[in-house]
């Protein structure tokens, strides 16, 4: 494989964004280890490859469909929104993007079949919707505001994180649901805020997410509500002993979260000043997930 093709593959896969998948896996594995005191490296590696492949497939389908729709030529590029720009620079790489998306999805299907074959057929309730979500997110779900809001969180929280816990522990508890719901709310917010700079361009190609439907200022309240709900879940979970008290390590991020929420409210329509907050949002989401994993791990 030539250096240019490899560079394009890495850009289309958006490898710098795959850290979110790794953070979710760390959280799921830590919780599972504390719960069962058992760990299988082959199973973990299989789940990790499937999860990373799923994320790559979504990214590659997104690149391909955004290029085909013309959206890539309209969106302002920021480090966290607007696509990688790879196919604009090299249109011939569109076939490469589609191939990467399909091959990555096939890897997910094969590994998923291997995982459920070991007496885990119940996981199909998560696996099949997950496969559908990978393909339909960019081309269809982005036209349905509520589904567009919750689909990313369902993918990373209720399918990836909860699915991994289910595989590793053999079942689900209230604690597992709390963890997965918190991740869901955070990842919803990751994509929600990243939609703010793209509103005008997205509207031109038929997308209908909340920043388009109700405006950025009202969408900022949804953003704030989801962050607060994620914190409320963790606090209540410690009160009811569903999570260890060390889970409250996530409270260390509150000063930065306050800065983020105030900033998003004030700069919702000032995209140039909003862009740095997209990075802060990404950092806080990763920090929350990893601090939650650390807090759960310290319970040992």
Automatic annotation (TrEMBL):
Species this protein is from: Aliidiomarina shirensis
Sorted UniProt keywords: Cell membrane, Membrane, Menaquinone biosynthesis, Transferase, Transmembrane, Transmembrane helix
An MF annotation (GO) of this entry: prenyltransferase activity
Coiled-coil ranges from the UniProt annotation: none
Topology within the bilayer: Multi-pass membrane protein
Subcellular location: Membrane
Protein name from the UniProt record: 1,4-dihydroxy-2-naphthoate prenyltransferase
InterPro entries: UbiA_prenyltransferase, UbiA_sf, UBIAD1
Major localization listed first in the record, in broad terms: membrane
Known pathway: Quinol/quinone metabolism; menaquinone biosynthesis
GO annotations of cellular component type: membrane
Entry's Gene Ontology BP terms: menaquinone biosynthetic process; vitamin K biosynthetic process
Classification lineage: Bacteria, Pseudomonadati, Pseudomonadota, Gammaproteobacteria, Alteromonadales
